[in-house]
Amino acid sequence: MGWSFKLHGGIAAGLSALLLILAALTWLPGTLPLVDSAWLTVTVVLLLFPIFAAALLRILLTRADRHSVWLAFRCLPGTVQGALGSLVVSGVVVLLVSMAGAGNLQSAETRDGRYFVLDTTPYERGRIEVSQSQYVAVLESDQRSMLAIPSFLFAAAGYLALAAGELRRADAEPRT
Known about the structure:
The chain is mainly α. The chain is about 70% helix and about 10% strand. The protein contains six helices and three strands, in the order H-H-H-H-H-E-E-E-H. Strands 1-2-3 form a three-stranded antiparallel beta sheet, with helices on one face. A hairpin with a 2-residue loop joins strand 1 and strand 2 (about 115-120). Helix 4 (about 65-75) crosses helix 6.
């Protein structure tokens, strides 16, 4: 496998792990000021789209079917498979836990010193005023979701890039 595939997969997996760590930090008491900043969101979006699109393009250029991609992934070392698998599973677990914990409340915001959230309960949809503790819980749940989704996509990009590299290596080897 070429170095560019390894670098691409490694960067994607590293960013996935970083976002999962930030998501886990939201379970600590208090709010994370780093996660609430706009520059982090912009950075994640600016990195996610080219990395994921390039991985998708790389796998499409191999013209392999899903089964072949899975077999190529299975040819990677066990530690790489385990690391990527644990990143995907962790991202899904964090996302499911954060979605289950908030219930029907999301999009926490403050206006004039009062705390509001969006209630998405059917037939009662709208902004409602909540206590500060409920506001903090919804804010942290939103932060976890906004970190877990790109983390999952970065892990998927790592999977695609490394599988594409393995397919390319297999195609380049002379058959005996």
